[in-house]
Amino acid sequence: SISTQYDVKVIENVEMHAQALRSEILTVMGGFSEESIQGKAGRDDLSKRIKESINAKLEELEGFGGVEGVYFSTFVLQ
């Protein structure tokens, strides 16, 4: 899940570019090992890096990011 305190345009941009953002998220996740995300600090770092990558891609595509938080409702390690 993501959060923003900006207007609905941020959510529309996320939905419009969902495929590109999904690719960015998977790239970031691929850079983490299972061990590095087992603790809270590791998951917080993953969340931060995903947020940064989403905002960077949105800035590239739309000129503005606006995502302020990334949250995991479930987290399964395989």
Entry summary:
The chain is built from 3 helices and 2 strands. It has helices at 8-16, 18-30, 40-62, and strands spanning 2-3, 69-70. It has a two-stranded antiparallel sheet.
Which secondary structure elements does this structure contain, and how are they paired or packed?
Elements: E1 2-3, H1 8-16, H2 18-30, H3 40-62, E2 69-70
Antiparallel strand pairs: 1-2
Helix pairs in contact: 2-3
Structure, described:
This protein is mainly α and 78 residues long. It has helices at residues 8-16, 18-30, 40-62; strands at residues 2-3, 69-70. The longest helix has 23 residues, at 40-62. The protein is elongated and about 35 Å long. The mean pLDDT is 94.
User: Over all CA atoms, what is the radius of gyration?
Assistant: 13 Å
User: Ranges with pLDDT <50 over ≥5 residues?
Assistant: none
The end-to-end distance, rounded to whole angstroms, is 20 Å
Strand content: 5-15%
Arrangement of strands in the largest sheet: 1-2
Largest sheet: 2 strands, antiparallel
Number of distinct beta strands: 2
Average residue pLDDT: 94
The tally of helices reads: 3
